[in-house]
Predict the 3D structure of the following.
Amino acid sequence: MLKYVDTKNAPAAIGPYSQGIVCGDMLFASGQIPLSPATGEVVGDTIETQAEQVMKNITAILESQNIGFANVVKTTCFLADMKDFAAFNGIYAEYFTGKPVRSCVAVKDLPKGVLCEVEIIAYLGEV
């Protein structure tokens, strides 16, 4: 049985998708971009401020399932410009201390013209 994630502490989906889905003991979360959950507006104009907001949004998704960053097993990171990799990686490393497996790619464009997006897969059991 699938359970849909719906928390007001993370931005609402801006399209025909959900914030996340729990399937068994795994959480599959949609990519988070640096939107304010309160306003739906983009937060910040630098990679650092946008990455921080993305991490806050991921925190909200994880907390909605009573887990934390240590439960994340896989991330996929999208950057608008690979020149931002070092700065993005610095913020990322502060949160993903468990070093989940990761893919990180530069893409031509991201929704709303943001600089980064991160999606996660997490384990809901004890770590």
The mean pLDDT is 97. The radius of gyration is 14 Å. The beta strands are 2-5, 20-23, 26-32, 72-79, 101-106, 116-123.
